[in-house]
Amino acid sequence: PPRYHTAMVMHRSGRSAPPLAAIIVAGALAFLAFIAFIPPAQPDQKLGTVMARRMPVARMCEHRAVGIQRRREKLNSIIRPRVDINQLDFSDPQVQAISAAVGAAIAGLGLLLARGQDSEGSSATGRPVASPMGSIRRGVRAGTKISDAIGVFGATGNTGREVVEQLLADGQKVVGYVRDPAKAKKTFADLKAGPALSFRQSDVTLSDTVTPALFDGIKQLVVALGPVYGKNAETGEFGPVDGMTPEAVDYKGVSNVINSAKGVLPASKETVTPIFDFGWTPESAVDSWSSLDDVIMGGTSSSEVNFVGGNLRWSGTVVSEGGGFCGMRTAMEEKPLMLADADGIKLRVKGDGNRYKFTIGLKSTDTKYQHPFNTQKGFMEEIYLPFEAFVGLSTENKNFANYSAIPLSEIDRSQVDSMNIVISKFEFNGMPNPNGIPTDFELRVDSISKVAKPKPQIVLITSAAVERNARIETKEERENEIPIVKLNPNGILNWKYKGENVLRESGLEYAVIRPTGLTTQNMTTDYALDLKQGDSMSGSISRKEIAALTSLCLTSSCSTGKTMELRRSESRDALGVPGTNRKVLLGQLQGLVRDSDRFTAGLPVLPRAVDPPVEPLTEKEKEEVLNDPRVKAQREREPGSQQVAGRAIPSFVVYRNGKPLAPGSSPSGGEPAFVVYRDGKPVTGIPPSLG
């Protein structure tokens, strides 16, 4: 259980169990105290003598007494007399001096051990070592204990940096895990002080650096790892460097993170907390609920609320002429209900087959939010209403939807001051009730509770095409696939997919994001986004858009247990649409299914993970792939760049009058001839040719 692992971590860090040194010192002191109070030895005390148990003479048979005496004599003849502690005379000054010396020696040993333990690093005690990057902390004092933070592996990578900045913008505390402290300091040097940002050093390819102590104070993780590519210093060939291969990072490295975090990350489980529990509250509690019918607008519908059999009973008659509705509501709460930690409302009701609507009012705005629900006649049932599915209502016409209303955020959910249930002849926007116009009705409410659903403990960012690559069984099938599947450099698609499966089998709550080809074009332009499943689409996506989805997945229970592919929409009207809008993305997330339920949506079940093909592509085959029209089209969209494992690497040389020009240089010595930008920021110090 998590609490067991927590206890073990606390024990290693020395916060819950006394250190060995303290035990030794205490034992030495107890020994000295013990010998100080022992009286002098008596002459007739001998350990080698076995004494019979005293028994009343009247109860001891003659033959039993004889047997005891014989056993005593036999034992006394076998046991050799030896020195007993009581034979030492502790009143003798010489004996006292020897005893004191022994006790002092034991105490001294304990003090030496204590000093040695204090000087050890975290690998011995489990205590965090002082960060070598203390100078780059943002908004955190040195030594400040971190709590409720989100850890980001691969924080100094291009995608990881965008994720860190997005999380900070959303008000989260972030801990970045990095291999190189100097690179982290340089990467985040321009960040202004704000929400907490700190770093911890770790190399995911070395399992002994990925310890449970790394996750102290971490509530969730983002894994945005990837192999490191560059030119081999000896051969000049382009490929993985420093041993950071796809297998070492995307599979083994991801496995190290997941296996180490399994018993340490806070559990993510569903919790149900009653708001109104009519079965366990006095009948007077029903007085906070009252009916509100269409008589306020000239109608003739009527209803009443009372307490029957441990339930709140709401019953009445809806008359279609006039307003055509009945409702019951709570009194306005002086202190708003705190539902910020919840993901939805759970109703336990006994219905009549009618369709009702549950409405929430906020103290901070006039906008109300509504969620319809159906009931079964004569059955007590539980109905879950997720906050993401509540429809914002117009402030002018309560029956009409407000399409500009944002979904209920955590801030909104902390300002709930009223709830009501409505039965009406209308649905939304004047449309009729799909279950028909109600007449007589009766709804019994046993309880109204807030529900916190499991959220992802880990969000893993991998790559599109990993699943379709895993479904390939023959070389002929591979030849008919898209270019990235044909190339599959260093088996990256296989290793990323194996890393995904380690997460799925870990028992942790998760979300997996599979971006399509990464692009650096049009970073400030809004695009509609496609969020789909089944790994059947290709395209491009920016790192900022990936970061926006990552942040949303961490806070949305509707992303839990789901794997999704992400790209910029290629439809004609996609340009200018705010695809990263929270409302839009939430709507797409809700439409996805959990990995375990893919077959219910007509999606193929996830294939098994396999190792990369034994026979890599020949140079000729690679050239054929690079000449593919689809690859050429991508190069036209991304001029001067090459796609390596989904990463766009700028490569360009600028010429003037036939001569290469270094960025920022000017033949006349005046203003720079041009400025090179990367990820929206000017770059300096670039050589004339950048490979």
Number of domains: 4
- Class of the largest domain in CATH? Alpha Beta
How far is it from the N-terminal to the C-terminal residue, by CA? Answer: 51 Å
Strands, total number: 30
Explained architecture:
With 691 residues, this protein is an alpha+beta fold. It has four domains: 2-123, no CATH class; 134-267 and 457-601, Rossmann fold (3-Layer(aba) Sandwich); 271-452, Jelly Rolls, CATH 2.60.120.430; 652-691, no CATH class. The strands form eight sheets. An eight-stranded mixed beta sheet has the order 3-2-1-4-19-20-24-22, sandwiched between helices. Helix 2 runs antiparallel to helix 4 (93-118), helix 6 (158-169) packs across helix 14 (543-555) and helix 8 (246-261) packs parallel to helix 13 (492-504). The relative contact order is 0.08. The model is unreliable at 1-18, 41-68, 74-88, 112-142, 639-651, 663-669 and 687-691 (pLDDT under 50).
Looking at this protein, list some descriptive labels.
elongated; disordered C terminus; Jelly Rolls; six-stranded antiparallel β-sheet; 26% helix; Rossmann fold; alpha+beta; disordered N terminus; 30 strands; 691 residues; NADH:ubiquinone oxidoreductase intermediate-associated protein 30 domain-containing protein; 23% strand
List the helices and strands and how they pair.
Layout: H1 2-13, H2 20-36, H3 62-78, H4 93-118, H5 122-125, E1 149-153, H6 158-169, E2 173-178, H7 181-187, E3 197-201, E4 218-223, E5 229-231, E6 238-240, H8 246-261, E7 271-277, E8 289-291, E9 302-308, E10 311-317, E11 325-330, E12 344-350, E13 355-362, E14 368-374, E15 380-386, E16 391-392, H9 410-413, E17 416-424, E18 440-452, E19 458-461, H10 466-470, H11 475-479, H12 483-487, H13 492-504, E20 510-515, E21 517-518, E22 529-532, E23 540-541, H14 543-555, E24 562-568, H15 582-590, H16 619-626, H17 629-637, E25 641-644, E26 647-650, E27 654-656, E28 659-661, E29 676-678, E30 681-683
Parallel strand pairs: 1-2, 1-4, 2-3, 4-19, 19-20, 20-24, 21-23
Antiparallel strand pairs: 5-6, 7-18, 8-11, 9-10, 10-18, 11-17, 12-15, 12-18, 13-14, 13-17, 14-16, 22-24, 25-26, 27-28, 29-30
